[in-house]
Amino acid sequence: TARHLHTLGFDAVARYGIRTVTDLVADDDLKHDPAFYADHERLELALCDRAPYVRTARMWQLVAHRTA
Which residues contact 22 (CB under 8 A, 6 or more apart)? Predict the structure, then answer.
């Protein structure tokens, strides 16, 4: 978490949700359709840093930088 990173000398810059909607698509074959994939990717990117999706995503990525 950001708190743990801070104790190691880092400050959190941003948090992004990963797989915010991907796991909600039950039809795995649909995910292989190029048109669907392109739309789906745009949706994932649009939601990855918006509340509440960033908190409800299956995984998340925390971007940080080292403090002085």
Answer: 31, 40, 44, 58
For residue 34, whether the previous peptide bond is cis, meaning omega lies within 30 degrees of 0, is: no
Comparing CA positions, the residue from 40, 50, 47 lying closest to residue 20 is 47
3-state SS assignment for residue 32 = helix
Altogether, the residues listed in the chain come to a count of 68
Could you read off the pLDDT of 48-61 as tens digits, one per residue? 999 999 999 999 99
Q: Which two tokens stand for residue 15?
A: 């948090």
Q: Give the helix ranges, DSSP H, for 1-68.
A: 2-7, 34-47, 53-56
The pLDDT value recorded for residue 1 is: 76
Closest CA to 53 of 12, 23, 31: 23
Predicted model pTM: 0.76
